[in-house]
Amino acid sequence: MATKVTITGAAGNAGQAVGRLVAEAGFEVRMADMVAPAPDLASLGEFVRCDTRTPTDVRRAVAGADAVVHLAAWHSAHRPPVSDATIFAVNVDGTFNLLEACRDEGIGSLVFASSMAYGWSGVYAVTKVLGEELCRAYHEMTDASVAMLRYHEFIPAPYLEFGPRLLRNGVDRADVAAATLAALRATLDRSAGLFCTIVHTDHGMPPEVVADFRRLGPGWCEEHVPGARGLIEKYALALPERVEQHDLTEAARVLSWRPSVGFLDFLRDLKERDARGEDVSALRVPGELPRAG
Ligand SMILES: NC(=O)c1ccc[n+]([C@@H]2O[C@H](COP(=O)([O-])OP(=O)(O)OC[C@H]3O[C@@H](n4cnc5c(N)ncnc54)[C@H](O)[C@@H]3O)[C@@H](O)[C@H]2O)c1
């Protein structure tokens, strides 16, 4: 029998990509969200309408599940903005309700969507601190295997902003989904215990290029993608002084996950579009490199 996975926030940006990947991997998916997922996601599995602020909703959402991927949250990037009070209620009370329901159901495998915003700089940031603390407590109280993933940014953006963002705080949504699936597997086979990692990009750059990207980056890109220097100039890509880069070796060791999409992939994609004469100035992407064509 297939392993049953409830995904909260399944209709959202991460939820769509995670739901597809988890279903493709052979899990039985239950999508829990306040709003119904897009029609093209209907075949992934059952949809349970659920407001995580309501305990009976979350109990229904996790009933019979073997594992839960908890993505449902409001963040600060929504326009028009969501109030701080709603962000707090959904992200903190909603997480508390979900964990209570998981405990009643005896769920021993949990993946929690945290954020690089984690910290004390605002209400959203604090909700991720409290969310992680609640997850730690869940692990302590139940011995469940819990993975907390501090995603970098994958909000929908203009294509020409998305690419350079990968050099800063950006990550491709496909990498977010792959890391989440890897974390799900690691919690199910209990190799994760209590685990927390950053989910970010890795460009495979030498340290001197990372540290001095604006000066050395175009040449390094040109070596790997001929024509890159011209593309950077033609599209006035805003390059950072230095590249944001984190040590992801623990994620590779514990989750067997490594990011697969970096700035060079963006440049290769841009090169193909440019060669076809495509106008990319108005192209928007869902926080993920689009398939060419
Ligand atoms: N997008 C990013 O750049 C980013 C970065 C770091 C962390 N995260 C985290 O990743 C997760 C997913 O983010 P996203 O960008 O896909 O968000 P999203 O806004 O696209 O999706 C969130 C989903 O949660 C649902 N939701 C909201 N309130 C709910 C409630 N009370 N009950 C049930 N469902 C509810 C929404 O309907 C939506 O479908 C969130 O936990 C977010 O904090 C996102």
TrEMBL record:
Domain NAD-dependent epimerase/dehydratase residue range list: 5-153
Leading EC class: isomerase
Alphabetical UniProt keywords: Isomerase
Pfam families listed in its UniProt record: Epimerase
Highest taxon listed in the record's lineage: Bacteria
GO MF entries: UDP-glucose 4-epimerase activity
UniProt EC number: 5.1.3.2
Protein name: UDP-glucose 4-epimerase
